Amino acid sequence: xxxxxxxxxxxxxxxxxxxxxxxxxxxxxxxxxxxxxxxxxxxxxxxxxxxxxxxxxxxxxxxxxxxxxxxxxxxxxxxxxxxxxxxxxxxxxxxxxxxxxxxxxxxxxxxxxxxxxxxxxxxxxxxxxxxxxxxxxxxxxxxxxxxxxxxxxxxxxxxxxxxxxxxxxxxxxxxxxxxxxxxxxxxxxxxxxxxxxxxxxxxxxxxxxxxxxxxxxxxxxxxxxxxxxxxxxxxxxxxxxxxxxxxxxxxxxxxxxxxxxxxxxxxxxxxxxxxxxxxxxxxxxxxxxxxxxxxxxxxxxxxxxxxxxxxxxxxxxxxxx
Amino acid sequence: xxxxxxxxxxxxxxxxxxxxxxxxxxxxxxxxxxxxxxxxxxxxxxxxxxxxxxxxxxxxxxxxxxxxxxxxxxxxxxxxxxxxxxxxxxxxxxxxxxxxxxxxxxxxxxxxxxxxxxxxxxxxxxxxxxxxxxxxxxxxxxxxxxxxxxxxxxxxxxxxxxxxxxxxxxxxxxxxxxxxxxxxxxxxxxxxxxxxxxxxxxxxxxxxxxxxxxxxxxxxxxxxxxxxxxxxxxxxxxxxxxxxxxxxxxxxxxxxxxxxxxxxxxxxxxxxxxxxxxxxxxxxxxxxxxxxxxxxxxxxxxxxxxxxxxxxxxxxxxxxx
Lengths: 321, 321
What we know:
The structure is a homodimer.
Chain A: E1 2-6, H1 11-23, E2 25-26, E3 29-30, E4 33-38, E5 51-56, H2 64-68, E6 75-78, H3 84-89, H4 91-112, E7 117-123, E8 134-135, H5 146-163, E9 168-174, E10 176-177, H6 191-200, E11 205-207, E12 214-218, H7 220-231, H8 235-238, E13 243-245, E14 249-252, H9 253-264, H10 266-269, E15 272-274, H11 278-284, E16 290-291, H12 294-298, H13 307-318
Parallel strand pairs in A: 1-4, 1-6, 4-5, 6-7, 7-9, 8-16, 9-13, 10-12, 11-15
Antiparallel strand pairs in A: 2-3, 12-14
């Protein structure tokens, strides 16, 4: 089977590609070709059993998406887009990358006419507060960011293209991805990962909000698991409501730090330094906290059971155990 | 004040314009100019106190919306678009008229830079079944038509443009508009009006579904009232959730016919002839029935109290009493 990954150079994209190489198959079918697309160049990957083609370009440019569909991939993972901070800073770029890019891709898929499975990485940013204690699957989507609005719009397209039989879509509303590897970044949500990743390698990390803040997390490994699972789900079992709230571990920051202490010791956990940041707090207080994610669990999506496990996954995958 | 109405030649557009002429003012401010836009030519309307400009064109054509914003209207009623049957039949046209038209209009409003109130006619078609008995205000929007998808997308744009301060939007999810004046049309929902309008002038009407089907209705007069009320609502009182489920009268078809009998007599009501249509039933069974519409009522939106009143409004407005 042939698989296309857009946004393949991103953090989740790279981990997904590594997993596809490792598995060599998806849903019981051998992977023969991988098309990897991104706006930034990728390292040349190779695998003895898989034909890999690297494509560098902008999906919002006319013709780009059509070129990607020439070999009619069986599965499309659409991960491309700009992140929420960038979409908020640059209004036009956000709509271009996140909405127009998806729309042109879906249009090209429709034109190709073979109705592949399309797995789209949406986000819990489709939701805006105030929230009930536990957000049910049928809660309305009124985002408080442009990024969230672009995800809502793409979700609606995905549902409509699926209903029409132009593609066979599944949208995954990803929770906070934790622990994010790499350097601390300036994303407002970065501290959820920073306070684990940095202490684990002996560095201080700043906590800009109170320890009572609750957020739902899943490891990068689980997120890749969601994508793979979605790729081979039976569409009829999903029904017409194609955008699913993914499961995760809902914990307070205090509980995150307690888990860090259990897994890595008191001295490691002591490297978290509190330094309040009003601007970050202003955003964080509107973020969703807990999700029922009932349909996703029924459909077999699984995440970690505890934040201790999330830390162990990070140690296993990023710190060589 | 200057007011722009898009879709001004449509049924609701014409009634809104007539009301604006009659009132001569909106929210306590005198109306001095009216820009009326539509894809089809309108009769030349005139009013001694109001400067009326007729614009014929396609909002999805580049430059159209910018031209409409040259005189910086204080209020924009965005009613333009193709109806659900047309959007379902012609996929590309639906997205062009309903999504791209709105997006270009909102973009032009943003460019004009004066943040007018924008009242957008959305629809309960944003919802798709299965439904709870009474649809709450925070129910998710997963439409089962392309028209509904286009409304969901435009609603998301409206919220985001409002949050950014580019415009000051209010979206109204209109219930079934009943009694629709004019000739019977082929819209799947047409029978809800046909079974009242036709018997009232002594003609037979076909009822293609069972009498137990429940739907929420508001008269054209109430819908115009929603639009006018939305135009002068305090944005701060609405908050960030700008798309509101409008109130209406939830009745079964049996109750509609009983009301017809009370208002116009047994012989009139006997002109409804049952003739089952599987294709219409297939659609109708997925339509939403009852809405809480709590927020809209709190914000002062009002509709009729009974279906008897809806019939009386039709007799008063369309049959000269």
